[in-house]
Each structure stands twice: as structure tokens, then as C-alpha cells.
Amino acid sequence: MEFVREQGKAYRSGACGVKYLVRGPKIDWGVILFAPGDELGRHLHKAVEETFYFVEGAGGRFIVNGIEYPITVGAAFRIEPGEVHNIINDTQVPLKAVFIKSSYNPTDKVDV
User: Computed from CA positions of residues 12, 18, 19, 23, in that sequence, does the dihedral angle turn out positive or negative?
Assistant: First the structure.
């Protein structure tokens, strides 16, 4: 059993960005906070499936293989391996999502 609290973990980039709550041995998961104007960056995973569930914010865009989807609180996106994806917070308020990556493979990401 593993127990963590989000408040006990730090965002990778200081005030925002990725905050891993669990890293391996079978999954990665955590939260990601996008400040206004931030974006995730276009990338894909060779073998890892990734899911995002949006819990805070007022818009933004989720782009998968060149197709844009509006982001709303409560929206969930499951990304298959090989799908190029990006998240853009083009709003004036922070945007927060929970993410889950399975299976655990920290070297699987490919920036495109």
C-alpha cells in the first residue's frame, strides 16, 4: 500500500506543471496544472496509454492527431500509444487535470 497527499508533492516547474503522485512500478499518475498561456507540448508515447481528467479551469484545447477538442471540467481523454497530443490553456485562468499513464515506462515519451 502506498499513501500520498497532493499537498506533500511539488510541481516540477515550481508553481505549475507536472506533479507526480505515484511513479511506478506499474503506473504513473498525478496532476498537471497549466497556468494561463501554458501548453503541454506535442508528443506521443510509443507503448504507454495516457488518460487525462480535467478537474479545474474554464476552457482550453486538447489536440489529438491534429483534431481540437474543447476542454471542460469533467472531460476525460484517453490517448492510445502513437497518438500525437497536446494541451493548450489559452484562457486567463489555471487549468488542472489528473493524468494516468500505464504501463510504467518513463522513457516512452517522444516529442514531435
Answer: negative
Is the Cβ–Cβ distance between 44 and 4 less than 8 Å? no
How does pLDDT run across 69-109, given as a tens digit for each residue?
Answer: 999 999 999 999 999 999 999 999 999 999 999 999 999 99
Domain ranges of the chain: 6-105
Strand ordering across the sheet containing 76-79: 17-23, 27-34, 95-102, 49-56, 76-79
Whether pTM exceeds 0.85: yes
**Is the CATH number 2.60.120.10 carried by domain 6-105?**
yes
